[in-house]
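ugh finaly. both done.
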Amino acid sequence: MHDGDERRRLGHGSSIATDADKAARECVQEALGGRNPESADLMVVFPSVEYDPHVFFSAAADAAAPAQVVGCSSHAGFVSGNSGAMDAVAIYLPADDLSFGIAAVAPIGTAVFACAQEVTTRARERAGDQGDHAVLLVLSDGLAGDQREIVRGSYSVTGATVPLVGAAASDDLSMSGTYQFAEGEVMSNGLIAVWINAPYPLGIGVEHGWHPIGEPMVVTRAEGNVIHELDGRPAAEVYLFQRSTDPAPAQNYGSPERTFAADTFNHPLGLANASGRLDGRHILGRTDEGALIMFGHVSEQSVVQVMAGDADDLVRAAGRAAAQAAEQLDRPSRGALIFSCTGRIAPLGAQVAAETAAISAGLGDVPVAGFFTFGEFARVTGSTGFHNATVVVLAV
């Protein structure tokens, strides 16, 4: 490999160290691979919520200096060439002929649309005008209300020509809080935008691997991320009927017994979109009244369908996402950032690492890395693009 090619290569690193400072430095230094970072470069880090975020992000920024550093908390991270889930992951993107504009805002509160507009506008300004192609990368608080408003707010700035990709930060499924980091600040309830300019196309792939079963249903009563009724009946009752599953006792996260959410990870709902496909929506739990609590907001009169799939289906879908991303490139890939839903972990089972390997292979055995999220962003056409139960690939 020529020196110039080595300099441009995406690098990844990981750590399972229990100490936050050590974990941050280990994954960043491995991602650098002996290269000296420059101020225009970008380091993206995904630590688990078990680490003190202030200690971790401070150490990561110090180890990556003078490169720009952004990141968010994760349920777990992953890198190609490693068979296990990682507590900390770093991805190094040397600038070379790319330019990055970074902006962040916190707290988002209820002003999700306006905050998305704000950070997208500032990130675009900071990236400059160079480059014939652009992609907007966003990292959000996974518990920050209607994530669809982030897509809509950003779209109001980017228009149809700039695709959006990214993910919602996650935690250990306690739903107690997530963290974001940009511009030297640790945030909770924050939103980060990274505008990427390039002289060549970047590739985005999005697939989930689920297939519909049962009959289409109409959301007849919903509020926020709670579906109260499907086809005019209690949502959980209709959902279980479509699955041909006997009802189980209602339980929430934190119970020592198997949760309702865990029982539904292999049967998410599919939300019909304008292109005639089904976007994934995982179920977080159910209420005593029989409503379904969703990972993402769902509007009334939406058409949904129960979906099913096994580990092989999900791994093949990851390979298809890589193929989609590769088709959009006009040169060999340098590597990729991956965003995969936390709800895919249980259905993948022992094949969790196979998902990462399928993506790497589909892009030409390049380094890939990412984290398990509370939701994925992928908007290539149209103004929608928030997903659950899905894997998203950004190939550079």
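ok and the 2nd:
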Amino acid sequence: MKRGHIGLLCAGHLVTDINQGALPAMLPFLISGRHLSYAAAASLIFAANFSSSIVQPLFGYFADKISTPWIMPLGMLLAGLGLAAAGYASNYWLIFTAVAISGIGIAAFHPRGAQLANNVSGEKKATGVSIFTAGGNVGFALGPILTTPLLLIFGLKGSIFLIVPVLIISIIFMIQIPSLLQKEKEESSKITKRTVTSEEVKDEWNCFLKLLGPITCRSITFFGLNTFLPLYFIHVLNQSKTTGSTALTILLVMGAIGTLIAGRLADHYGQRNVVRVGFGILIPLLIIFVNVHTVLTSMILLIPIGLTLFAPFSPMVVLGQKYLPNHMGLASGVTLGLAVSIGGVAAPFLGWISDNYGIRQALTCLTILPVIATIIAFILPKPKIDLLKVKQVQAEA
């Protein structure tokens, strides 16, 4: 695994997902500046994620069929331009359209990026994919850190500054694409010579479909917290917008740390075990969080919640790629796109609950999801491609 290439993919993921992290931080400003209801604001999360969920598997499908390295820098630019335009839009439907365009850009980057992260990581795939995934988590965390001060100083038009990071990294990407593709070719050649190739094992579609269960549960839990955590601190705990943004940042920063730790653990102890433990510990943490009423305790609880909420994610991405070794781009597009974005699609329903019953009740609804995810995680079988590798090693010994 060459860390320079993984680092570049991580940086691309970071600047792309800054825009996903920025959108929830913009919601309080859009609510006050454009007079939106909670449900209307949550529907913007739906717009970004629904547009992403529809097209991301298609980008993954074509990543398996044709070489499309240019799609990654293009996706970065669309992600930044769309969200920047949302701050300038004068009415709700223009905002809705702008964030949908940003979602399409995000969808364009992820499948090929995840596929490359897997392919250039050699034998340490969980570690490589976890570094790539952590870049996205850091981007989510930086989104509110960058956005809140900009909007406080410049108003909604401060969103224009979100174009800068994607512009810089997309240019670097265009320069480095030949090197990335060469490294991918070299690693594929090494694997073909010394271990099982994807053509030797059939895709396990039934296992992959089961995996979508915990991925979906995690997605809804994450987007529920990502959307309503700042609003919870502002409107339920009576804190400032800055405090709400800080709470979201704590969750996402701890998530990035949890992702990196989980990648190394998954390479050592197995992806399924990390997924099971992560979801299992998350269950009591969420129950406690929605039942405490002090700011300090809530903030402290976000530390272990961030670690355990994000720990299963990169191991599940790798599991998806292993279940579909002959359609790795499609597996990446679905695990990072269609199933993940279901959380954004569910956001309007949580917004409706918030409008009618309160934000605390909306967050309480999330506590059942880790239970479902844990149950499904325990029935996931070991990928056949791993079993064949074990047999090959035993035969060579």
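summary for the 2nd one i guess: The chain has one domain: 3-184+202-396.
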